[in-house]
Amino acid sequence: MDCLFCKIVAGEIPSRKLYEDEHVIAFYDIAPQAPVHFLVVPRKHIATLDDLQEEDKPLAGHILYTAQRLAREQGCEEGFRVVMNCREPAGQSVFHIHMHVLGQRRMAWPPG
Ligand code: 5GP
Ligand code: ZN
């Protein structure tokens, strides 16, 4: 399958990894939008958040919990933002779900 994040998960494309376990990996975004910007990615290929199945609920919780734990480790205890873009109109560009974690700068709302 021609999926960039499957290739990163498989180690075929290098990444600056922060964390990995049997379900997820986390690595720094190649084009950071904040002083801290990393992605939490399931090893399982799921194209968009709309493709999440009932059986993926524990995995979704694990992604969120991993994001929170790593944000704290990265010095974001003052606050951080998590983002999942679902489908192209919402800004998704890599079609393997991932949670963005952004921190160490002030965030605006609403987002662009
Ligand atoms: P999306 O636009 O799908 O929400 O987020 C995809 C993210 O992946 C973008 O923030 C983009 O900078 C990041 N990205 C794209 N290609 C690579 C890559 O090869 N390595 C890493 N580490 N991040 C990437
Ligand atoms: Zn994939």
Task: Give a quick precis of the structure.
This protein has helices spanning 4-9, 57-73; strands spanning 17-20, 24-28, 36-42, 80-83, 99-103.
Topology at a glance:
Layout (H helix, E strand, L loop, with lengths): L3 H6 L7 E4 L3 E5 L7 E7 L14 H17 L6 E4 L15 E5 L9
This protein binds guanosine-5'-monophosphate (5GP) and zinc ion.
Q: How widely separated are the two ends?
A: 32 Å
Order of helices and strands: HEEEHEE
- Quickly count the helices: 2
CATH class: Alpha Beta
Strand neighbour order, sheet with most strands? 1-2-3-5-4
The name CATH uses for the topology is: HIT family, subunit A
Strand content: 15-25%
**Tally of structural domains:** 1
Spans of at least 5 consecutive residues whose pLDDT stays below 50 are none
Largest sheet: 5 strands, antiparallel
Rg from C-alpha positions? 13 Å
Named CATH architecture: 2-Layer Sandwich
Mean pLDDT: 97
Question: Could you explain how this protein is built, in words?
Answer:
It is a single chain. With 112 residues, the chain is an alpha+beta fold. The chain has two helices and five strands. It has helices spanning 4-9, 57-73; strands at 17-20, 24-28, 36-42, 80-83, 99-103. The chain has a five-stranded antiparallel β-sheet, covered by helices on one side. It is globular, with a radius of gyration of 13 Å. Residues 4, 13, 15, 27-31, 85, 91-94 line the site of guanosine-5'-monophosphate.
